[in-house]
Amino acid sequence: METPHYVAARVQRVLAEDDRTTELGIRVDVRGEHVFLRGQVPSEKRRRVIEEVAREATPGLRVHNEITLVEVREPGEEEHL
Amino acid sequence: MTDLRIAAVADIHLGSDLSGQYRKRLEDIEHRADVLLVGGDLTRHGTATEGRIVADELHGLPIPVIAVLGNHDYHSDADRKIVQTLRDAGITVLDDDAMTITVNGVRLGIAGGKGFGGGFAGKCASEFGEPETKAFVRHTREIADRWRRAMKDLDADRTIVLSHYSPVKETLMGEPPEIYPFLGSYLLAEAADAEGADLFIHGHAHAGMEQGVTPGGVRVRNVALPVIKHAYAVYCLDGEGQ
């Protein structure tokens, strides 16, 4: 069985390099047969695609998608420098 | 005293799935700010198609829009095309140079470009060893040198540096320290300090913090969208100059 440490590194690299994702900010943790994806993205579609690409890269492992959506709020208070 | 109201955002990462979404958040921006600065990573893959989406999203605003590219915008080797598309849409793109606009009678100078990495003083790469290492560090040094020259030539009351990469570690807090050398370089801060900038705007570090300061006292703001969590941040500088 591939060492979890290397599985995590491989998934993180795939998420950065796969044209469907090109996500550099997703944290990948592997514990036994469980793969945890964490981070923030701006759309549900991107969230789903990241999970799909991670699943393809980790056959036989269980992927938990804990990625949250960034909510872009109306501009807030201004800061006086 | 006239305040300059600077709207700033970075890492908007627009693609076809977000087309039209960001634009909605820019409504009424002219009542909140005098200028909009966009600190790179405008796209996801850096394709010409995504460049057009960005141009559509940012064009025709009632206030000037000044942008730089980020690392994502270089990914498909279409960076020159993206720059041209944005310029055709009336957006100023800084590429290691500077420009001046007059806002309420105050001359605001904006200098910058993408920037690059290398790390921070005492814990950084140097131009030593393999050609690949030297090229990496040289790229940042040459960028910083161009920024210094561009700032030196500015005739402005206030100066802002606009970058994608960070000049300091403070605004990277929250990112793994191991990747700091890929997130910024102290050479960028040194350039801003040497030429006396008033504010340094950057993005790139999605998990970082908003506020920082250079060793020379220039305020730094990381405006990556996931950090500021608003469509843009607004910073007010008094227009009296130094």
From TrEMBL, chain A:
Q: What is this protein called?
A: BON domain-containing protein
* Pfam families in UniProt: BON
Q: Where is the BON domain?
A: 3-71
- Gene3D superfamilies given in the database record: 3.40.1520.20
Highest taxon in the source lineage: Bacteria
Automatic annotation (TrEMBL), chain B:
Q: Which domain of life is it from?
A: Bacteria
A single Gene Ontology MF term assigned here is: UDP-2,3-diacylglucosamine hydrolase activity
According to its UniProt entry, the protein's GO biological process terms are: lipid A biosynthetic process
Start and end of every Calcineurin-like phosphoesterase domain?
4-207
Name the GO cellular-component terms.
membrane
The record's PANTHER family line, in alphabetical order, gives: PHOSPHODIESTERASE YAEI (PTHR31302:SF31), TRANSMEMBRANE PROTEIN WITH METALLOPHOSPHOESTERASE DOMAIN-RELATED (PTHR31302)
Identify this protein by name: Calcineurin-like phosphoesterase domain-containing protein
Keywords for the protein's UniProt record, in alphabetical order: Hydrolase, Metal-binding
Q: What lineage does the source organism belong to?
A: Bacteria, Bacillati, Actinomycetota, Actinomycetes, Streptosporangiales
